[in-house]
Amino acid sequence: MTKTPGPPLLGIDWGTSNRRAYLLDSEGNLIRRHDDECGILAVAGNFEKSLADLLARLELDHADVVMSGMVGSRNGWREAPYLPVDRPILQLPEVMVEIEPSLANVRCRIVPGYRYDDVHGTPDVMRGEETQILGALALSASSGWFLLPGTHSKWARIEHGTITEFATFMTGELYALLSHHGTLATLMQEKEPVPAAFEAGMKAAQQSGFTHAAFSCRALVVTDAMPAAHAASYLSGLLIGTELQEIRYRTNDQTSLAVQLIGTPELARHYVDALEFFGMTAVMWPPDDVYLAALRVLAGINT
Amino acid sequence: MTKTPGPPLLGIDWGTSNRRAYLLDSEGNLIRRHDDECGILAVAGNFEKSLADLLARLELDHADVVMSGMVGSRNGWREAPYLPVDRPILQLPEVMVEIEPSLANVRCRIVPGYRYDDVHGTPDVMRGEETQILGALALSASSGWFLLPGTHSKWARIEHGTITEFATFMTGELYALLSHHGTLATLMQEKEPVPAAFEAGMKAAQQSGFTHAAFSCRALVVTDAMPAAHAASYLSGLLIGTELQEIRYRTNDQTSLAVQLIGTPELARHYVDALEFFGMTAVMWPPDDVYLAALRVLAGINT
Predict the structure, then answer these.
(1) Chain A closest-CA separation from residue B236 CA (Å)
(2) Chain A interface includes B222 (CB < 8 A)
(3) Residues A37 and A163 in one domain
(4) Which pLDDT tens digit goes with each residue over A57-100?
(5) C-alpha B130 chain-centroid distance
(6) Is B109 found in the same domain as B133?
(7) How near does any CA of chain A get to the CA of B214, in Å?
(8) Which residue range(s) make up the domain with B274?
(9) A175 and A263 assigned to the same domain
(10) pTM
(11) Are residues A140 and A239 in the same domain?
């Protein structure tokens, strides 16, 4: 008996500013990749039209479409309510939210994000990162802390395929804001990558909170203890060190922690240095690899 | 024997963006006040010309000019090197840096700032706040913590007229950056002063570091736990609470701390609420009063 091939699989990581599409054949092989800037802000509500254009561009007249990221937020195509963290990650294929677009021969589903309320009842949220974590687990990542660096860095602790806690840090956004506006930006006319300044920033993160330590970036320069060209590396070390300091605190100072790091080489590099400085190690997961692995699980393709 | 009256006294609090001038007669009575936007950035190096214009505007052909603030920084008129904190504040009159402008009958001095190296060797700096503290001490402020809120909030601990430590927090600047740019700013289309949200922000500051807690501002809104219009108050409480949490930590949780607060009513109000929430009390010192008191001490006028 010959198995009828299923439709091609189109995975879309649809974020606020960008959209990354991955086209796979029905056996899960990557055929084509297409990135554009049609994030949910640019699409401005015309999601069906935007998807139809994308399908036309990829010359698809039928497809199984699986979407993750901000497309499932309140400002996206359809709100896919946040899951509580006790819902196992491997159950994501069963809880996708189905949209019924008027496009013929197109099945369309959105992966929901997660919500976590900490011990004080303060919520945190993720959308998109759950898909990356699913992929890493499918590729046999161990339990423990997962780190997804970026504009809003996410740290998630996974035990037996279930998130037990997670925390977001505004690291990338604060770096961008402070290096483009205000007092510290005026110091950063020149930016050199300086390992010693990055390390000094991490040390400062171990000694005081961010809103005070950030000013030391300026105080070091005006007292001639640091050249202005080192300020950007110092700020980067301070922000990343602040994350690690808080995670170490949450982990009761386990110094031999291995962290599953899902990030582009450019972002990951700084974190690898920082993890080493804090006595931790990184297990690297390339973002495209984990995304494709997740997509196959979500679409039910056995590879 | 009749005492010859001295020259009029012109005090200038000359900052980065603004300049506040106070004209006193030789007996220390305030005659006139003049504020403008001729901060050191706007003056662009032409300090003598800028002072000559100010004297002309105030119709002065002779004066004793005492300046404090960023005018004494490297980017100011003349660098007045930072004093180490063990130099008593009441000795400031003896260590002013004299400039000799080509203006006839004008004596011109700059009050130096202070530098403090913390136990880890990390420097912090102040310029201008030392003058305010001098004035409060002249008006009989007690020893203990002094708080000068603003773009860069300063906390200084004074014992027997000498600074023993101080710390700067980028509170006002981070509030301005985050409420005008980026993820949180998009929530803050409407801003209501909401005491409960301010308090929730202070609680969040007690529970985690700023770079994580700032994201909870967004998570609370997207999970419908807080209306978007409350986000600004929450962020304000979080930033101010972060200061108090760190000061409380440095003070070994002394809960009945009285803080000498030098700030405008608008800024002071939030801090008074926050101090009360943290079990501390505020002793209020109006900024103009302490500045004028400092000026009289600096110029050697006995009142």
Answers:
(1) 13
(2) yes
(3) no
(4) 999 999 999 999 999 999 999 999 999 999 999 999 999 999 98
(5) 9
(6) no
(7) 7
(8) 128-303
(9) yes
(10) 0.94
(11) yes
